[in-house]
């Protein structure tokens, strides 16, 4: 026996060693006393060792966590007395909703770990966007408040209630106004709770204002049709779609719903029927929607209104003044567009992204002329996702400045961050006696108020939503409150003297109002997650064209005000949108679909325009707005950007959001302005080169394909002549030779088909993959070193048409006079699970091996990081884990601490440093599907297994299944004439087939 080593016989002896005692002090620093933990568990220091370990078997980590975070302690129940609904290792699913969309929440042992679209959600089963996929992480955010605060100090709920009721009573006695400022409220039960509160305090008024406004649409529809609503757009019914700066596949109104509709006329099933819609996009900055258009024309923001005037004149034969007189490319396109729209009467739609009443009124006039209402535009079943009104908020500020408001509550509202004139808002709020926020953290607004009553996360809440006409969804809790929070609606009821708990309130409201006359019960709703009452029939609307001359004059005036200096277009990024999820590390590291930038916003400039300003890659520029607001931003050289314009994403520049999101990027909201009562994101600025340099963290910095036939495109006209046009299958013209024996795959052979026509590049699949497979966030610096860990990436390639040929090479693009009019192709790229996988032959320890079901497996505990496999992979899809990102303080994006690791999927191991990792085709889901079929004593059916990426995709661009089943969807898809395999000439025999990109371009 080694005399230099200390050996111990049991746990009792080990616990008495100085090293263990010292270690325990460090691990349980600031914890409550051990005796208190034992007492709460019903134990004592004299408890027999077996009972002690049995109680701790529930998870000492959970108890320690609760102690460290000062959350209320509850007695842990050992699984010898198991909760009826919980089976270790088996997930539970709960129907709920997020932002109005019905979702399924997967929980494991009481922990929500994943959101997916509710497959039963009739009418709104449209996949999920990146924000929805990442939302589960927000539940475990340690930046959130752990209890109520009053004047900056912690307080109890009873004390806070006393202070609030006193303030409300004083305001009521003095006849002063009480205001609830909220982002759009489409919850019937929340509206009912506000109504109950108003009964007690009659001077109360709900004011809805959104960070990103659509009031230009609602007010234009009020003037045009007498209905102040945002319509429901039906892109599935449109043969011709014209968008003027509306990112309807991304962030405009309801991107995922629009995507599902849009793709239904463009995917492989539609093409097989000889049908494909045509989409023309006019815009300044390259948007997600513009990158998917058949024809894209770059225009300045100042040209949006004149272009619509010219389009109206061309369609109706009118003579409104102020039509587009410059931009020859746009004028040429307009003639073709007007002809297409006239031919598609009743099957066409024109949308505009401008939040301007005049522009939206003119857009209404165009759609009336096209017969779009009742077909491609539905006013009778409108969207209720966006009802904010800046005029109402401005009126509130005026009331506050006059001293008329004594109490103000803020619900999901942070105007000191997103309002263009935060100083004016602050000055008005200072004149209100009592101000309270329901924010879950001390954000930019909440930190300046008198009190904070932190709201539950939606995964801890009861509630509902009414996202559009005829459609209702339920919100139900999937976990007990993590912190000492309370639902905002419950607080309103308590302050109104109503002792009803909010669950009962919601249930009663549904039974008395929403379910009245329905055969469904409350229990049915909890199981399905929604209630669909059907669409209201189309009404008849008239439009008065006599006022269009005045509309044209207003558009001309606004356009002239923009046509000076450098034109600025503010936009929402796909990841952060308006900034409310700015502390979510999954979203911060999601590459922008176009620029592939993570962790920052930037000034996007046309490369030729940037060159004229003396700017280049890694340059920084000072942007000075009309109001004198200045920020310094890194420059991004962006093909497709209109000359003389700059695009900047909002949602960044948060200062009080949390560890991950604080001081990421710059706040662009102050560049916005309110014109005629509507919030305008198009403005002007001056650009000046700033000193220094800044390297953006991009995940795709190599933009060329080096002459390889990776991306394949054709036109719809050529496709109809030859469905396999430009597919270029290597095996059709070359004899292949094998050095390996063929793998026998007698059972299943798991493969994938990806439709390049359906993939919009939104990135939802990337986040879904990361959440499902515990893919770590590595941070800005590691991304700069090309060490991002995403198992699935979406490559973006720019293409140009030149002399009838399509080029994707960077040097060819550089020959253009400008880089305004380029096209984009998005290509998801993941492990191809090759039958002749080159990675397998070079691994010295057999860490990567082939399965009998056609998958390339990774045995992490064998891998010791030679990286030979990564060098030998032609697709560059293998990721080397340089550090233990989950447990290293250098990469603490609040994803690698004990608490937020509760979001981890226990079915997938968390990898440590020094190993290679990659897409596993969600092997855990495959095994779970096979096991379920076995339990039910039936064969596995096509569709039983959905991968995380395919389940998230609104467009069904990723099709997974069994190639050995000739009737499976993937087998049918891979028999399509458009299918090709990337780098097929290498004879690695990939298991992922791609379908050639088809564009419905104008034919000369």
Descriptive account of the structure:
- With 1004 residues, this protein is an alpha/beta fold.
- It folds into five domains: 71 residues, no CATH class; 176 residues, Rossmann fold, CATH 3.40.50; 157 residues, Dimethylsulfoxide Reductase, domain 2, CATH 3.40.228; 134 residues, Barwin-like endoglucanases (Beta Barrel), CATH 2.40.40.20; 257 residues, 2-Layer Sandwich (Alpha-Beta Plaits).
- Helix content is 29%, strand content 20%.
- The chain contains 34 helices and 42 strands.
- It has a seven-stranded mixed sheet with strand order 5-4-16-15-14-6-7, with helices on both faces. Strands 22-24-23-28-20-25 form a six-stranded mixed sheet. The protein has a four-stranded parallel sheet with strand order 11-10-9-12.
- A hairpin with a 5-residue loop joins strand 35 and strand 36.
- Helix 9 packs across helix 15.
- The termini are far apart.
Number of helices: 34
CATH topology annotation of the largest domain: Alpha-Beta Plaits
Helical residue percent band: 25-40%
Main β sheet profile: 7 strands, mixed
Question: What is the secondary structure topology, with strand pairs?
Answer:
Elements: H1 11-15, H2 18-27, H3 34-40, H4 49-56, H5 60-68, E1 92-98, E2 101-108, E3 111-117, H6 130-138, E4 149-150, E5 153-154, H7 157-174, E6 177-182, H8 188-200, E7 204-208, H9 215-225, E8 230-233, E9 240-244, H10 255-263, H11 268-272, E10 278-283, H12 288-291, E11 295-298, H13 304-316, H14 328-343, E12 348-352, H15 357-369, E13 377-383, H16 390-402, E14 405-411, H17 415-418, H18 422-429, E15 434-437, E16 451-452, E17 463-468, E18 471-475, H19 488-495, H20 502-514, H21 522-528, E19 530-532, H22 548-562, E20 566-572, H23 585-588, E21 597-598, E22 603-605, H24 607-612, E23 620-625, E24 630-637, E25 645-650, E26 673-675, E27 678-680, E28 682-690, E29 697-698, E30 713-715, H25 716-721, H26 730-733, E31 750-755, H27 764-772, H28 780-784, E32 793-802, E33 805-807, H29 810-813, E34 823-829, H30 838-842, E35 848-850, E36 856-858, H31 868-872, E37 879-880, E38 916-917, H32 923-935, H33 948-952, E39 958-962, H34 969-974, E40 979-980, E41 992-995, E42 997-999
Parallel strand pairs: 6-7, 6-14, 9-10, 9-12, 10-11, 14-15, 15-16, 20-25, 22-24, 30-42, 31-41
Antiparallel strand pairs: 1-2, 2-3, 4-5, 4-16, 8-13, 17-18, 18-19, 20-28, 21-29, 23-24, 23-28, 26-27, 31-39, 32-33, 32-34, 35-36, 37-38, 40-41
């Amino acid at each position: 026996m080694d005399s230099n080593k200390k050996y111990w016989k049991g746990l009792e002896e080990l616990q008495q060693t100085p090293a263990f005692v010292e270690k325990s002090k460090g691990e349980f620093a600031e914890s409550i006393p051990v005796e208190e933990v034992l007492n709460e568990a019903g134990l004592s220091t004299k408890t027999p060792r077996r009972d002690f370990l049995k109680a701790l078997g529930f998870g000492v980590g959970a108890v320690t966590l609760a102690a460290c975070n000062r959350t209320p302690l509850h007695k842990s129940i050992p699984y010898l007395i198991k909760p009826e609904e919980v089976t270790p290792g088996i997930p539970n699913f709960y129907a709920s909703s997020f932002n109005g969309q019905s979702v399924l929440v997967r929980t494991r042992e009481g922990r929500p770990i994943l959101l997916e679209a509710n497959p039963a959600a009739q009418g709104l089963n449209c996949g999920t966007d990146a924000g929805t996929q990442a939302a589960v992480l927000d539940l475990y955010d340690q930046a959130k408040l752990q209890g109520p605060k009053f004047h900056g100090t912690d307080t109890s709920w009873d004390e806070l209630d006393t202070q609030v009721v006193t303030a409300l009573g004083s305001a009521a006695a003095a006849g002063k106004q009480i205001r609830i400022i909220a982002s759009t409220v489409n919850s019937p039960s929340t509206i009912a709770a506000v109504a109950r509160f108003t009964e007690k305090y009659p001077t109360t008024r709900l004011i809805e204002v959104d960070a990103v406004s659509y009031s230009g649409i609602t007010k234009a529809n009020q003037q045009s049709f007498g209905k102040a609503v945002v319509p429901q757009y039906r892109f599935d019914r449109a043969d011709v779609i014209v968008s003027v700066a509306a990112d309807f596949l991304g962030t405009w109104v309801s991107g995922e719903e629009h995507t599902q509709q849009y793709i239904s006329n463009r995917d492989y099933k539609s093409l097989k029927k000889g049908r494909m819609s045509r989409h023309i996009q006019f815009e300044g900055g390259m948007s997600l929607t513009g990158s998917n258009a058949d024809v894209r024309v770059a225009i300045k923001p100042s040209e949006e209104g004149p272009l619509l005037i010219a389009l109206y004149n061309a369609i109706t034969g009118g003579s409104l003044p102020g039509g587009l007189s410059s931009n020859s490319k746009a004028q040429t396109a307009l003639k073709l567009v007007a002809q297409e729209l006239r031919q598609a009467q009743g099957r066409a739609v024109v949308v505009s992204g401008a939040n301007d009443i005049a522009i939206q009124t003119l857009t209404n006039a165009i759609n009336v002329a096209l017969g779009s209402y009742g077909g491609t535009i539905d006013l009778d079943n409108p969207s209720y996702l966006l009802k904010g009104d800046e005029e109402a908020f401005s009126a509130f500020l005026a009331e506050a400045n006059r001293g008329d408001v004594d109490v103000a509550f803020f619900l999901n509202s942070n105007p000191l961050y997103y309002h263009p004139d935060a100083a004016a808002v602050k000055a008005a709020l200072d004149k209100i006696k009592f101000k309270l926020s329901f924010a879950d953290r001390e954000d930019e607004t909440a930190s300046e108020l008198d009190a904070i009553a932190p709201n539950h996360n939606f995964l801890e809440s009861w509630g509902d939503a009414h996202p559009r006409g005829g459609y209702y969804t339920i919100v139900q809790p999937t976990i007990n409150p993590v912190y000492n929070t309370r639902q905002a609606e419950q607080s309103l009821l308590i302050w109104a003297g109503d002792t009803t708990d909010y669950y009962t309130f919601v249930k009663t409201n549904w039974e008395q109002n929403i379910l009245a006359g329905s055969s469904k019960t409350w229990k049915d709703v909890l199981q399905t997650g929604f209630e669909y009452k059907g669409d209201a029939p189309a009404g008849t609307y008239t439009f008065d064209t006599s006022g269009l001359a005045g509309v044209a004059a207003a558009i001309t005036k606004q356009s002239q005000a923009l046509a000076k200096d450098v034109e600025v277009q503010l936009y929402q990024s796909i990841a952060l949108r308006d900034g409310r999820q700015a502390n979510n590390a999954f979203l911060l590291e999601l590459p922008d679909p176009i620029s592939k930038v993570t962790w920052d916003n930037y000034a996007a400039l046309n490369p030729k325009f940037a060159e004229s300003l003396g700017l280049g890659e890694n340059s920084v520029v000072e942007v000075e707005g009309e109001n004198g607001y200045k920020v310094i931003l890194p420059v991004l050289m962006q093909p497709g950007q209109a000359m003389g314009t700059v695009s900047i994403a909002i949602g960044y520049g948060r200062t009080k959001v949390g560890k991950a999101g604080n001081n990421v990027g710059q706040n662009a909201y102050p560049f916005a302005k309110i014109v005629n009562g509507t919030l305008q994101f198009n403005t002007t600025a001056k650009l000046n080169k700033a000193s220094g340099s800044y390297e953006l963290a991009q995940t795709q910095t190599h933009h060329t394909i080096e002459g390889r036939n990776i991306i394949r495109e054709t036109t719809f006209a050529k496709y109809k002549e030859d469905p396999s046009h430009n597919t270029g299958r290597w095996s059709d013209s070359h004899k292949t030779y094998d050095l390996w024996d063929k793998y026998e795959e007698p059972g299943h052979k798991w493969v994938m088909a990806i439709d390049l026509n359906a993939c919009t590049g939104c990135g939802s699949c990337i986040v879904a993959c990361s959440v499902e497979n515990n893919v770590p966030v590595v941070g800005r610096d590691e991304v700069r070193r090309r060490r991002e860990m995403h198992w699935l990436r979406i490559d973006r390639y720019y293409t140009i048409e030149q002399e009838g040929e399509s080029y994707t090479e960077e040097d060819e693009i550089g020959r253009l006079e400008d880089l305004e009019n380029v096209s984009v192709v998005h290509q998801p790229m993941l492990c191809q699970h090759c039958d002749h996988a080159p990675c397998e032959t070079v691994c010295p320890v057999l860490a990567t091996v082939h399965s009998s079901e056609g998958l390339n497996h990774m045995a992490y505990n064998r891998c010791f990081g030679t990286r030979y496999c990564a060098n030998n992979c032609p697709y560059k899809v293998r990721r080397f884990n340089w550090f233990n990102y989950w447990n290293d303080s250098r990469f603490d994006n609040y994803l690698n601490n004990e608490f937020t690791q509760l979001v981890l999927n226990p079915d997938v191991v968390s990898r440590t440093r020094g190993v290679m990792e990659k897409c596993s085709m969600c092997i855990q889901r495959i095994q779970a599907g096979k096991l379920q079929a076995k339990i039910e004593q039936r064969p596995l059916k096509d569709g039983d297994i959905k991968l995380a990426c395919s389940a998230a995709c609104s467009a069904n661009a990723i099709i997974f299944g069994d190639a050995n089943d000739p009737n499976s969807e993937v087998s049918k898809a891979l028999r399509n004439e458009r299918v090709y395999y990337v780098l097929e000439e290498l004879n690695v025999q990939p298991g992922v087939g791609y379908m050639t990109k088809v564009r419905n371009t104008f034919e000369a």
